[in-house]
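As described in the Methods, two query proteins were run sequentially through the folding procedure within a single session, without resetting any intermediate state between them. The first query and its resulting C-alpha cells are shown here.
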Amino acid sequence: MSQPVVHITNLILKYHHKPVLQDLNWIINPGENWLLRGTSGSGKTSLAKAIAGLVPFQGTLSMHFDEQSKLPAVAHYVANWFQFTDLEGQSNFYYQQRYNKQATETTATVKAELEDYGKKHQLQFSDAEKLVAALGFSELLHSTLIQLSSGEHKKLQLVRALWLRPQLLIIDQPYNGLDKLSRHHLNTLLEEISAAGTQLILISNDRELPPSIHRFAEIKDGQLYEIAADKHVSHLDETVNRPIPSFLNETPAISGDSVIKMVDVNISYGDKKVLKNINWEVKAGEKWLLQGHNGSGKSTLLSLITGDHPQAYANNFYLFGNKRGSGESIWDIKKRMGLISPELHWYFDASATVRQTILSGFFDSSGLFCEPDYTKKTQADELISYLGLDEYKDVLVNQLPLGKQRLALLGRTIVKNPELLILDEPCQGLDQQQTQYFNRLVDELCKNGTTLIYVGHFESQLPACIEKRILLENGEVKSVENILESVSQ
C-alpha cells in the first residue's frame, strides 16, 4: 500500500500564542481531493500553512510525494488574498494610491509579475497565457498590480498556482471576489489539473465545487472531523437575534431626495475606457445591488461615489444633492457614508486595535489619531458587544483571524449610522454564521431609511432588504431593474 501524501499526528498549533489546533490528526492518501471548512478562527488557514511549511507547529507532519511524477514535489499554498510590493520592495500602500499615476508607475504590471514568476519556476509563459485567457484576465496583462480589484488579484493568484501545477495545491477561499462565470471557469481548470495529477485542498464554506472534490472535513474545537459527502454543506445554527444597538435605530440625517446622480459619466485611463456614459440615480432610502463580471467597472464606479477618484470632477456627477467640484471637501463627502471593501481592508492601519478600528469610523481615518468623546466610546463598545468581539477589543486587528478582522471593519463602517452605506463584498472572510448575522444587521439598519449600495456575487450572501439592481458590463450599464426574485449573477 502506498504511503499517505500527508500524514499528521497530534499536531498542536498556536496563533499569536493562543492555542488553535490541539492534537489534530489527518491522513491524505494519493488521489484524494479535500474540502476543508470551519467557522472563522477555527484554524483552517493555520493548518494549511503548516502543511505548506510556512508556520511552526508541534507534533508530526510528514509528506510523501510521488518521485515518478513530473509535477513539482511541493505543497503550494495560495493565500486568501494577494500581498504584493512595489518595484522597490515596499508594501506600505494607502487606499487612494491606486488612483495616483505615480504609484502605478512604481508597481509591476500583471505581465511583468507573471514573467518574473515563470523565470523563478522555469515555466513557459505560453502556458500562463492560456490560463489568463480561460479566467478572462487577458485585457489586464498591462495593468499594474495596484490597479487590480480584489477579484482580479484572486485571478492572478490562481493563474500562478495553476501554472505551477504542484503535486499538492492548497487554495484558501478560491472563489472570493470571483463572478459566477469566473467561478465556473475556475472549477473547470481545477478539474483539469486534478486529472493531470495535482491533489487539491480547498478551504471554503461555499457550495460551488469542482466534481473532483470527494472528501470533506471540518475543523471544530481544534480537531479535524471527516464529513460524509452528502453532509458537507453546513447547516446554520439558530443565532440569537439580539436587538441592534439603540443608537443605530435612529434615522440617519438625510440630505435630500437624491443621494447619487450620474449623467453621462465617463472614466478613461489613456485610450482605455473604463466607464462609458453611465446614467444612474440613487434616491434616499433605496437599497441597490451593484453587480457585473470582474473588470466590468464596479470598483471604479464606487471610487467616484466615495470621493477617491480624481476624475469625478471632470464629470456631471452629484452626491447628496451637490455637484462634485462645487466646493465640498472629500471629508464632507465621507462623513455621510460608511464604506467597506476588500481594498480598504488591505490598506487599513495594521497597528490599530479592534476598539480603535471601530472608533476610527467616526473620523473616516485609517486608524485612530484623536481622542473620541464619551458618547463615541460608549457607542463603539455597544457595537463591539453586538458583533461578539468583546474579548478581542484590545487586540491588534492584524492579530485576529480574517473573519474577525472583517467584522471589526464592518463595525467601523456602520458605527456613525451613516446616510449611505457602501458594502463592497462585505462578507468576504466571514463564515456562514457571521454572514447571516451581519446581513440581518444590514436589514435592520435599512428599515430606518439608510441608503444602501451592496456589491456581491453570491446569492446566499445578500441581505433581504435589497430592492433594485444595476448591472455593469464592459463599463456600461447593461440593465437597471427592480428585484422581485433572487438574483443569480
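Immediately afterward, the second query was submitted; its sequence and C-alpha cells are:
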Amino acid sequence: MAYLNRQNFSFPPDHGARIVSTILTDDALRADWAAELEEVRNTMLGLRDQLAAELRDLSGSDRFDFIRHHRGMFSRLGATPEQVQRLKTDAAIYMVGDSRLNIAGLNRDTVPVLARAIIDAGI
C-alpha cells in the first residue's frame, strides 16, 4: 500500500492535462470550448444584472448596483457577520463570513429569493 500511495502522490495522473491539451490544440474543439465559456460568462453577467435590479426594486436604492459591475464568480455584499448569520438562520442562505456570495451558484429562479432574503436580513 505504501508503494501505491507513493506512486499516486509522486506521479499524479496526467489525463486532465492531456484533455486540456487535446481541446486547446484542435481548432474545432477549441471553438466549442470558447463558445461554452462565453455562454457561461454571459449567464453570470445576466445573473448579476438580475440580482442588482431585484435589490434595487426591493430596497428602493441603488446601493447594490456594485454587484452589476463586478466580474467573476463571486461578490462581497458588505454584510456584517451577524447579517450573514441571519441569512443562514432565517433563509438557509450560506456564504462566507465576510459575505462573499457565489454568483455562479445562482439561477434565474433563485435570484428573487436571495434578493428578498438580503433585504429581510437588513443588509
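The CA atoms of residues 42 and 51 lie 14 Å apart. We note this only descriptively and draw no conclusion about the first query from it.
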